[in-house]
Amino acid sequence: MRAHQIMTRSVISVAPHTSIVEAANIMLKRHVSGLTVVDDAGKLVGVVSEGDFVRRSEIGTGRKRGRWLRFILGPGASASDFVHEHGRKVSEVMTASVVTITEDTALAEIVDLMERNNVKRLPVVRGDKVVGIVSRANLLQAVAGLAREVPDPTADDDHIRGRIIDTMEKNDWCPFGLNVIVRDGIVHLSGVITEERARQAAVVAAENVEGVKKVHDHLCWVDTVSGVYLNSPEDDDLAKAS
């Protein structure tokens, strides 16, 4: 399998001048752990993630280095720490040297890149524009839904996946972080919904795409106020049976 067969296409991005507070609120509201950072031309310039908010002066978690270590590292390290802990804009805390992949990157290479660079997500680029993102969650979804003896995805599966995503993204009930995996006409839907009626709408949308044989619902419901989440009924039944 390759990146384009599991990647999330609806990538949430912010600008370098976006405030830290706004970026944090976007991540909480959209239930994502990272955001791509793009300039006014849409070019990828960085990534900001949950880890960039761990060491912050507002919550008293700034890095404490001993005097001897500060001496060894020099003033440059202290200056960098200060910017990361007190910066007000995304550009001041983001990771600028981003590891990227293309739509044709094989899953084995994706996993290798994640492990080698200690990252949880890889932007998928076409030229210098972001067209998707592959996270550990996407890989987990692929393993959970497709770890069985089935044929490799075909061109028809790719077309089915594209039509399902195109149909859903036109609607305001489209799940956050929508991911669609298709194998031999069998569809696996995953993502986050905040309204139960969106679950049925998503399943119906997939069922109406020509070539779809069956739809598996892995959509997770999240309460936007409390943060409480529930797995799909199908996943709950599978968990009880195992």
TrEMBL record:
SMART domains: CBS
BON domain location: 156-223
Presence of keyword Signal: no
Keywords associated with the record: CBS domain
Domain CBS: 7-65, 94-150
Keyword Nucleus included in the entry's annotation: no
Pfam families with a match to the protein in the record: BON, CBS
Any coiled-coil regions, as ranges: none
InterPro entries hit by this protein: BON_dom, CBS_dom, CBS_dom_sf, Diverse_CBS-Domain, UCP036990_CBS_BON
Listed name of the protein: CBS domain-containing protein
